[in-house]
Amino acid sequence: MKQVLLIIAICIASSISAQSIVGKWKTIDDESGKPRSVVEIFEKDGKYFGKIIQLFREPGEDPDPICEECEDHRKGQKVIGMEIITDMKYNKGDNVYHKGEIMDPENGNIYDCKLWVEDGNLKVRGYLLFFYRTQTWLPFTGE
């Protein structure tokens, strides 16, 4: 009986720690604390990608902006539908997604990226050399 309970506990613990990043996440502005966008993360050929599917715009802001600051193939693309997370790989040992990139469509900057789920939220860390910034994205429930 003790062995069965131990096996059940191990299965529950491993399923909790191995939460997937696949789904829709609401990004939050660092300065205002307001929602900025919804990013849908999906798996393709063993790698993970994320694209903007919705923007939360303030009055007077362009509801369907174009990425003028982008310096790569995304220059001139509409931000809605734009792939901003690319080539993330899952590392089972650390339970993180890494070795990909994230792009900030507001300034066109591209950063190395690391993603992981913590307390039901998505932690998004962008790196530039030794410096990094971590954001918390919330599960999007359609609100």
CATH architecture: Beta Barrel
Anisotropy-based shape: globular
Question: Can you tell me the CATH class?
Answer: Mainly Beta
* Structural class computed from helices and strand pairing: mainly beta
- Major beta-sheet overview: 8 strands, antiparallel, barrel
Question: With helices defined by DSSP (H or I, 4 residues minimum), what is the helix count?
Answer: 1
- Computed over alpha carbons, the radius of gyration is 17 Å
Gap between N and C termini: 45 Å
Arrangement of strands in the largest sheet: 1-2-3-4-5-6-7-8
Task: Provide the helix percentage.
Answer: 10-25%
Indicate the proportion of strand residues.
Answer: over 45%
Overall pLDDT: 88
The counted number of beta strands is 8
Q: Would you kindly provide a written description of the structure presented here, covering whatever features stand out?
A:
This protein has 143 residues and is mainly beta. It has one domain (20-139): Lipocalin. Helices cover 11% and strands 48% of the residues. The chain contains 1 helix and 8 strands, in the order H-E-E-E-E-E-E-E-E. An 8-stranded antiparallel β-barrel has the order 1-2-3-4-5-6-7-8. Strand 6 (110-118) and strand 7 form a beta hairpin. The protein is globular and about 45 Å long. Residues 1-17 have low confidence and may be disordered.
